[in-house]
Amino acid sequence: MKPFTFEDLPNILGTLMMRMESIERMVKDIRNNRPPEDFDPGLLTILEASKLVNLSVATIYSKVCRNEIPVNKQGKKLYFIKSELLEWIKSGRIKTISELRSEVEQRFKGRD
For the Helix-turn-helix domain, which residue ranges apply (predicted)? Predict the structure, then answer.
């Protein structure tokens, strides 16, 4: 990155202003698309779902495409039910060695 001169300042400020206006438009669009206050808290948007399961939005989209995550679709919008996401997370639980050992013992006891 080269050092800036005093003559470069008008161009730099113009570029910064254009970027700021673009960011302001994006923030305004996001605010306008926010769900109403009486929106069902059990329903989550993709951003809320990504925060809940600690995965990126892109990862969530790829899991939706591969039918790996429970989702509801209305038009182009994706909605997630919080309880279903929590169950989905729990379904991937790996058993401990003692739980596996206990299951094996139960199976062998059943054969007697």
Answer: 43-92
Q: Which two tokens stand for residue 96?
A: 């401990």
Q: What percent of the chain has pLDDT over 70?
A: 91
pLDDT digits (tens, 9 = 90+) for 64-90: 999 999 999 888 889 999 999 999 999
In angstroms, rounded to a whole number, what is the distance separating the alpha carbons of residues 78 and 64? Answer: 9
Residue 39 has pLDDT above 60, yes or no: no
- Which three-class secondary structure state does DSSP give residue 86? helix
Q: The whole model's pTM is what? A: 0.52
Alpha helices in 33-95 (DSSP H): 46-53, 57-65, 82-91
- CATH for 37-111 is 1.10.10
Q: Which residues make Cβ contacts (< 8 Å) with residue 103, sequence separation at least 6?
A: 95
Residue for token pair 């991937």:
92
> Are 78 and 71 contacting, i.e. CB atoms less than 8 angstroms apart?
yes
Residue 56 and residue 67 in contact, taking contact as beta carbons nearer than 8 Å: no
